[in-house]
Amino acid sequence: MNSLLLSLHVLAAVIWVGGMFFAHQCLRPVAASQLEPPVRLTQWVGVFGRFFPWVWIAVVLMPVTGYILLFGIYQSMANAPLYVHIMSGLGLLMILIYLFVYFVPYQKLKDAVATQAWPTGAKHLASIRFLVGVNLSLGLILIAIASGGRYFV
Asked: Structural domain boundaries of the chain?
């Protein structure tokens, strides 16, 4: 059972962090250099509309599988090593950032695109870009801790 839970946990992380990496480091620069604001902003609403349902699955799956594994292996947070506490804290922070992105600037971006308020949409897309960059950085740090944390101490 632990192998299934760990596999689901890692797959959710790969989808979320890998998707952020692709969007932030590959898609964004090309879209910014080749597409006019109306097309670019409309494209991002479509991209997020397809990516965010996958993130929702990850946001539910990762803490559920993570905490089942944690309590199954260590019985309590008190028995878990430091790197597990760091993973938990960073993961929860990432989820909070995602929830803010989804419920605030993403909703405002969708509204701006629907009303063709391109400068307003660009402002909200810039906010999303910054926060995705923060979450991407946290996600990469978290992956490094998850994969090598037990060896750091």
From this structure: 2-152
Residues with Cβ < 8 Å from 41, sequence gap 6 or more?
109, 112, 113, 118, 121, 122, 125
* pTM of the complete model: 0.95
H helices of the chain, where?
A: 2-21, 28-34, 37-74, 82-103, 105-114, 118-152
Count of alpha carbons within 13 Å of 153, Cβ hemisphere only? Answer: 8
What is each CA distance from 62 to 10, 44, 88, in whole angstroms?
Answer: 8, 25, 10
Query: Among 97, 16, 89, 106, which Cα is nearest to 57's?
Result: 16
In one letter, which amino acid is 35? L
Rounded to whole angstroms, the Cα distance separating 124 from 10 reads: 30
Taking the C-alpha atoms of residue 151 and residue 129, their distance in angstroms, rounded to an integer, is 33
CA distances (Å), 15 to each of 29, 85, 146, in order? 20, 22, 16
- Whose tokens are 């089942």? That residue is 68
47-85: pLDDT as tens digits: 999 999 999 999 999 999 999 999 999 999 999 999 999
Round to whole Å and give the CA distance between 61 and 51: 15
